[in-house]
Amino acid sequence: MIIWKHLNIFFLFLLVEKCTLTSHFLISGRQELMLVPSVAFRHRPAAMELTALAQPTDDWILFAEGWLFEENPFRAMLATSILATTVHNIDKKRLAYFTGTGKRYKSLCVDGLKHEMCTRTDTHGLIETQFQVSNNDIEQFRVPGGRGGKVEYSVSTTDKSLREKGEIFLCDDHGISVISDIDDTVKITGVTSARSVIRNTFSGEYKAVPGMSERYRHYESKYNATFHYLTASPDQLYPFLREFFEREKFPLGSYHMRHFTWFDSNFFQFFASQSFIKQKTNILHMFFQKTRGRQFILVGDIFQKDPEIYANIYENYPEKILKIFIRVSEKKLTNRLNQVFKNIPKDKWVTFVNGYDLPETVF
C-alpha cells in the first residue's frame, strides 16, 4: 500500500497543471519538438470499392504526429523528490518529458516533401495531421528505412527557432506487416505491478525480452516484412524507446502511441485503460482497411488485453491475419487463451515465453 500512497501523491501533484501559481514564472523552461515515426497508405477516394486494386500512380496519405512542449524544471524537481522515495536512480530526462507542458494552438510548418503546409497543435500541444502526396513525389523522396522504404520530412516553428526531422514509413497494399505491442512483448515492463511499471519507466536501462529482436530481424529478412509498434506506452517515452530499439537492433518502423495528460492521474491504470483498448482497436482497423492484399502477423502479450483485442479483430479480418503470437509467463498458461480464441483456428495462434520460442517459419 505504501507504493500506492506515493504514486497517488505523485500524480495528484501532477495535477498542479491547473494551478495558476505554477503556470507562470515557476514552470518556464526549454521548449522541445518531438516527432514520432508514423505511417503512409495509398490514397483511396471515398467512392472507391473496397475490392478495388491499387494502381502504381495512386497518391499516398501521410500521417504526421508529434508534440511541442516546454520543460517545467520546478514540477520536475518536485516529482523527482516524490518518486525518489520508491524509485532509485531516476532518469531525470524521462521525468522531464512527463512533467513538461504542451504548447497549445501553436502554428507549425511541415516541409521537406516539395510542398510546405501549415498546421497547429491541439490543446495538449500535439501534432496530428495528414496530407496527400503524389506517388511521383513519394518516389522522388523515398529513402531506405524498413522494408517498404520511408520518406523524411521536417516540422518547424514559424520563427524557425525549433526544427525537427520526422519519418513516415510506407505501407503499401501488398506484402506482410508485423504489428507488435511493446510492453512485456518486446520490452520488460511488468505491467501487472505498479512498482515495476514505475521503476521500469523512470529508472534503469530498458531490458528486452530475450530473442525478440533476433526473431523480428529474421521475419523482416525472410518475409520482407514491415514493422509497426502499437503500444499503451505514452508518446513521452518515444525518444527513450527509440534508443532502446536501436541498441537492441529491432527493425525500424512506425510507432502508434497515446499521450499521457494530467487528467490521466493514475499512470499504472493508464496502461490498462479502456481508452487504450479502443485506440489500439482503431489503429488495427486503420491498417486493415487502408491496405488491400497486405497480410498481418499480430504480436502481443497475455498481461494486458491484447488477446481480446486481437480476437475481436480476427472476427472482422480472418483472411488478412496470418498468425497471432501471444507472450505468456509460462507455456502451459493457455486456459484464458483457449476461451478468448475459441472461434479462431488452433493453427492461427501460438504462445511464447521469449523470442526463441517463436517459429522461424510463420506459414
From TrEMBL:
Mind telling me which InterPro entries this protein's record contains? APP1_cat (IPR019236), Mg2+_PAP (IPR052935)
- So which residues are the signal peptide here? 1-22
List keywords of the entry alphabetically: Signal
Residues forming the Phosphatidate phosphatase APP1 catalytic domain are: 176-327
Highest taxon in the source lineage: Eukaryota
As one GO molecular function, the record gives:
phosphatidate phosphatase activity
Q: Does the keyword Manganese apply?
A: no
Q: PANTHER family attached here?
A: FILAMENT ORGANIZATION PROTEIN APP1-LIKE, PUTATIVE (AFU_ORTHOLOGUE AFUA_1G06650)-RELATED, PHOSPHATIDATE PHOSPHATASE APP1
Q: What is this protein called?
A: Phosphatidate phosphatase APP1 catalytic domain-containing protein
